[in-house]
Write a structure and sequence with these properties.
about 350 residues, alpha+beta, hpI Integrase, Chain A, 3 domains, three-stranded antiparallel sheet
Length: about 350
């Protein structure tokens, strides 16, 4: 059953529950003032006297119809696939979609921000690079071709970006133009041939001993929460987006069952005693999770206090040149370090 909610950012979202714990959440891109929204009825107030309210209702009905079309077409619980299909259903009857790649990219970023995707800032940074390169001019989809690929690679390299950072830019560009292609907004498939040339940058992981050092620290406040979340990531292998979705009610017979926010895939993970102890400490429900940026700041402080200070030599390709840096290990710890620590 589909429902609509107005959230704190003022936008109305369409919800459809895949299962009791997993919602498909779609932004309608409709913004409405709180006093104009009837929370109980999930619709605008005073429709008889509110022309805007009636137009909002029609738009909400359009999204609901698109959801029904998506569910009829795909018998799946893959959230990402269903969300894309909803927008494809909408686009069939909508001729107002951006014909310009940059406009579409901007709409993509706004959508990601509205629905709370944690990586929207990465897409926004990518968009900023493109705007500078194209001098804020319109860019037809047909311009994103192999000639552009070669020239833009040289441009990014000239900005002294790391090879892996450049690879990330191509990953994001391909995601956006690929989505526009699947929605039938253009026929240019040159993006399929864009290569993500990853460099061999060194990454770090924490040993069991180092994780234990963190666990045994006496911490309070935001550092304690950051440490606890990091350990959950390290002992479950979950992505950062899913750390705060771990709860005791999702653990049965010592096994955590959780559907990935990013992929929609269902994972079953044996619960490590450290994770179990952390859940018990918070009575089964984890506290508010800091942003990825703040977590990266806090966890470096935690690692420093745990004396994770071995000198580590890392190599990275930047601006086409191989650079070697020496750092204390705690300076390199990020949220990504958690998953790498599990993998080892």
């Amino acid at each position: 059953m589909a429902t609509f909610r107005r959230e704190s950012n003022g936008y109305i979202y369409l919800y459809h529950w895949i299962d009791p714990n997993t919602p498909l959440k779609v932004s309608t891109r409709i913004k409405i003032d709180e006093k104009e929204w009837n929370k109980k009825k999930a619709r605008p107030r005073d429709l008889d006297a509110n022309h805007q309210g009636n137009s909002i209702i029609r738009e909400m009905e359009r999204y609901e119809s698109a959801l029904i079309g998506a569910l009829n077409k795909h018998d799946t619980d893959n959230i990402q696939l269903l969300r894309e299909e909803v927008y494809m259903q909408l686009n069939k009857a909508d001729t107002s979609n951006p014909v310009d790649f940059i406009d579409y990219f901007r709409a993509y970023v706004n959508e990601a921000k509205e629905i709370g995707k944690s990586n929207w800032k990465a897409y926004n940074t990518c968009l900023n690079h493109l705007n500078v390169y194209f001098n804020n001019k319109p860019v037809p989809y047909s311009s994103i071709d192999l000639r552009f690929y070669g020239k833009y690679n040289k441009y990014l390299t000239s900005k002294q970006l790391a090879t892996n950072t450049i690879a990330t830019q191509w990953k994001l560009i391909k995601a956006v133009i690929g989505k526009a292609h699947r929605e039938g907004l253009h026929t240019n498939d040159s993006y399929r041939h864009f290569k993500k040339k990853m460099g061999s940058a060194d990454t770090i992981f924490l040993s069991e001993e180092e994780l234990n050092k963190m666990y045994n620290l006496k911490l309070i406040g935001y550092l304690e929460k950051a440490r606890d979340y990091f350990l959950i990531g390290a002992y479950t292998g979950l992505r950062f987006d899913d750390w705060d979705r771990v709860s005791s009610e999702k653990v049965v017979n010592g096994v955590l069952t959780l559907r990935s926010t990013k992929t929609g895939e269902l994972s079953t993970i044996p619960i490590h005693p450290v994770v179990s102890a952390i859940l018990d400490k918070y009575e089964g429900e984890l506290p508010y999770k800091p942003s990825n940026q703040k977590m990266n700041e806090y966890i470096k402080v935690v690692a420093m206090r745990a004396n994770i200070n071995d000198h580590v030599e890392t190599r990275i390709t930047k601006g086409g040149v191989r650079v070697i840096n020496t750092s204390e290990k705690h300076e390199l710890v990020t949220t990504h370090t958690a998953r790498r620590s599990l993998a080892t």
